[in-house]
Amino acid sequence: MYAAPALLLIGGLSSFLFSSYARDSSKPLQELVHRADRAVTALVVLAIVGSAGALLLLPVAGPLLTGRMPDPLAVTGWLCLSLGIGVSIPYGSLAAVRGKAATVFGVRLGESALSLALAVVAVALSDTFVLAPLCCAIGSLIGAICLRLVVLRPRRVTSSTPSSAPQKRRFETHV
User: Fold this and answer.
1) How far is residue 6's CA from residue 115's CA, in Å, rounded to a whole number?
2) Alpha-carbon distance 160 to 123, whole Å?
3) Has residue 174 got a pLDDT over 50?
4) pLDDT of 167 over the 80 cut
5) Is the predicted pLDDT of residue 163 greater than 50, yes or no?
6) pLDDT of 77-131, one tens digit each?
7) How many whole angstroms separate alpha carbon 152 and alpha carbon 120?
8) Residue 138 included in any domain
């Protein structure tokens, strides 16, 4: 509950990004990828600064909001998850707008399965839930990397003329 505002803020900003990508869908992919990179950078800075403030205020604000002192490691994990979501959603939204919704679904399914597996192992090894949100953050960050580097990878433009084809002469010599 303590980290919920961070998740809501990240989600709201990501919704705005989705609509802006849809509005500008005719622009070149590379331009939109650069916009997504800038948005991710801004969301990461916002998440880190906000998380630092939330953790500094945890001893006072935590008991006021929840009725008891939340586990700092669990809160850190939830805040890291908001960071992971902030990194992942802009790339997923852009890929979906560019017609790769099924691929985004596959990546999300994979990151969810990875997050669940990591959380199950962490809970089994530590006998506590506090590491589960951090495990989910790891899955989200891996999904974001996959979306950015694989799904939104710029395609190379290939020449329509093979390099072995005869080339036009640029200059004619006159005698």
Assistant:
1) 20
2) 55
3) no
4) no
5) no
6) 999 999 999 999 999 999 999 999 999 999 999 999 999 999 999 999 999 999 9
7) 31
8) yes
Residue 141 falls inside a structural domain: yes
Instruction: Please name the residue that has the structure tokens 């906000």.
Output: 50
**What domain range includes position 115?**
4-151
**54 belongs to a structural domain:** yes
Residue 135 belongs to a domain: yes
What pLDDT shows up at residue 157?
Answer: 57
- Report the alpha-carbon distance of residue 137 to residue 43 in Å, rounded: 15
Please give the helix or strand (H or E) that residue 95 lies within, else none.
helix 72-97
**Residue 173, amino acid:** T
On whether the CB atoms of residues 89 and 17 are closer than 8 A, the answer is yes
Q: How far apart are CA 145 and CA 171, in angstroms?
A: 49
Q: How many C-beta neighbours within 10 Å does residue 45 have?
A: 11
82: nearest Cα among 117, 51, 36: 51
Listed residue (72, 49, 40) closest to 141, CA to CA: 40
Count up the domains in the chain and report the number: 1
Residues 6+ apart with CB under 8 A from 83: 43, 44, 47, 48, 51, 137, 141
Non-local (6+) Cβ contacts of 140 within 8 A are 81, 84, 85, 87, 88, 111, 115
